[in-house]
Each structure stands twice: as structure tokens, then as C-alpha cells.
Design a protein that fits this description.
single chain, 83 residues, alpha+beta, three-stranded antiparallel sheet, 3 helices, nucleotide-binding
Length: 83
């Protein structure tokens, strides 16, 4: 599991497991519990590139990022570490 420290959002960190470019597991610490559990379930089994195409650049209110956008950053970082 790779742990990513989030920036600019309510969640404090995101633990992700990526294998061969596919999301195996996602767990948010903090943030909107129900929504983030749902996002985690929806992206499980998806390719990182597909998750990025859907969620990268998503914002939350006046913020320039969101938990979904931070998830993409976490997945990209985990991919880089795996390589």
C-alpha cells in the first residue's frame, strides 16, 4: 500500500494499491466518509489512466483540487513507485 499525503482537501491521506496499472485498493483517511467510500469502490479494478481521465482536475467548491483529483495524484505516485 502506498500512502499519499493530500494537499488542500479535507481528507488527510489516501492509501492506494496499484498493480500493473490497475487500482486494487483505495482507502481515504478523513474527508466525507460516505462519498469517499463510494469513490473507492467505483475505481477498484479500473486502470489508473481511466480513473485519471474521469477525475483529474475535478475541483471542490473554490478549491483548485478535490479528493477525487488528489486520488489521481496518489495513483500516479504509486505507479511511479511501482515501476
Amino acid at each position: 500500500m502506498h500512502v499519499y499525503k493530500t494537499r488542500g482537501v479535507c481528507s488527510r491521506s489516501i492509501a492506494v494499491d496499484v498493480k500493473d496499472g490497475v487500482v486494487n485498493e483505495v482507502a481515504f483517511e478523513g474527508g466525507c466518509d460516505g462519498n469517499l467510500k463510494a469513490v473507492s469502490k467505483l475505481v477498484r479494478g479500473m486502470k489508473v489512466d481511466d480513473v485519471a481521465a474521469l477525475l483529474e482536475g475535478n475541483t471542490c467548491g473554490p478549491r483548485s483540487t478535490s479528493c477525487a483529483d488528489q486520488l489521481v495524484r496518489a495513483l500516479r505516485e504509486a505507479e511511479a513507485v511501482e515501476a
